[in-house]
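call fold target=Selenocysteine-specific elongation factor
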Amino acid sequence: MAGHIDHGKTTLTKALTNVDTDRLKEEKERQISIELGFAPLHEDEEIQISVVDVPGHERFIRQMIAGVAGIDLVILAVAADEGVMPQTREHLEILDFLGIRNGIVAITKIDRVDEEFTGLVKEEILEELKGTVFEDVPFILTDSLSGKGIEELKQLIILTLKERDTRDAKGAFRLPIDQVFTVKGQGTVVRGTVYEGKVEEGQLLKIMPNGIETRARQLQVHHQPAKAAFAGQRAAINLSGVSKEDIERGEVLVSSEHFSVTKTIDVAVRMVGDLEHIVKQRMPIKCHIGTAEVMGKIVFFDRNDLSNSEGEILCQLRLEEEVVAKRGDRFILRRPSPQETIGGGWVIDPNGEKYRFGQKTIENLSRKKEGTPKDRIKAALSDDKVLTVSEITAKTSLDELTVKEILKEEDFLSINSKEFTLVAIKEAVEEEIADRLNEFHLENPMKQGANKAELLQAMQNKYPKMLVEFVLNAAIEESAFQRKGQFLQNKGFYPHVPKSWQKRTDNLLADLKKDGYKVKPFDEYYASAGIPENLKGDLKRYLEDQEIVVPLDAQYYWHGDHFRKAVEELKKSTAAEFEVGNAKDVLGLSRKYMIPFLEKLDTLGMTRRAENKRIWI
């Protein structure tokens, strides 16, 4: 909901949603919006719609820009008794620079003027909209107090949004933060519009650009509890492990580190149509990108100043603070003093470098801006990791034949007959698996390896599960990793006792072996060896897996050599069928050891019990 101050945006929002978005005491007293306001409008099986009411006063332009970032549809409110005003024009320019193409003009307060005057206002608006992205948008006449046109506007909003393509929720999650607050008993909550990807309850996240790690403890979407939030949805996320003071509006909540954190950005800029002051080389600017507002300077490579709009200009922004950005992100530029919007554009490359002044740099930026078809495909796969041919064509605007030809090149990899990734991504996944396994081996040297299911689970927030499985299976075939049942190992790894406890383990085994068949409970040997209690589980499992010891039951263990010797003696000295008494005669053991030993043979499938007898298998 955009428009000039006092043109009825908040009242119109309330008429549509029955929610007063002016929450602050100061907003009530001054009767103007200062902060962003949010109100749920409509929800059914197909769609959820919320209204973002943005401040209209020029002093609150920062909040206005934060509010429209990531929006699908704009209602431009124009009061019938005032018509087009300065902020109306500025908001139109900002919407154009941000690439918002869907709009509806709501002429408000129509009960304050007669029908003829309303017609004149409409003509004035039509004239103002000529040549803008809103030139052909529909008009609705409304009065929020009497309710005229409100239901028609609501139905038009729903119809317009249902005709839009659903946002793509693939790829890494990104939410520019526009509100931070605390809820008693819950802790820190951030709110914003999900730009891309999805977030799930319990998911590990990072607050960029500072890299603070956190977790999504609870989610709300459109003011309702939810298990997940998707691209395009308005979400509030309760974060664990961070305080309100750790976070600021303008920071970004992400699920992946592939987003660039940068201060130097190559951009394509368009200036406003009627610049009041010349834009000079290296002039201070205020850059609004996502929900961030950062000071910096604009650097030209083919001029030293700009006095009027000359179409798209290739240049660079050098910022004083880091921001999170990626190719294609939109931004607005404002002059700090005197305050005015001077232009806007999109990010060509978030990782700009310092270039020489001259035409050669402009030519390089131009090539970078256009991007080869291969560059566009690589950029799409870098974002989403795995895509089908049809998904690539949709994201790159390339024809299917071109896409298929480029995918044959060595930079690309077919996962199956339908889906593709980059060789670089495959290598990155393999490297991360190796790093995770190496870390696991260092922490758990006596274990067979990491559980495959747990490894897949740990990586699925960053990569699709099927991609990790594909890379893992290929690496196992190439012997980069080893698989033992459900466990994974790095090549060349074998379970072992840490050097620091090897001598005491040897002493334990020597004592166990010395006692032959008539052993004490295993825990007594363990206690005598002086090995820390927290290692007991891993050590016992390791000794069992390596068949160095064999548990007869939960209490008694034999040295593996004695167990194998007992089996050999018993098999040599008994017939195909034998009874407990026969076994006792051979081994000279009491029932205390004999019964657990025979039951162990049954468990291992070496014998089968038939009433009072056992049969060798």
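return ok
The chain is about 35% helix and 30% strand. The first strand starts at residue 2 and ends at 3.
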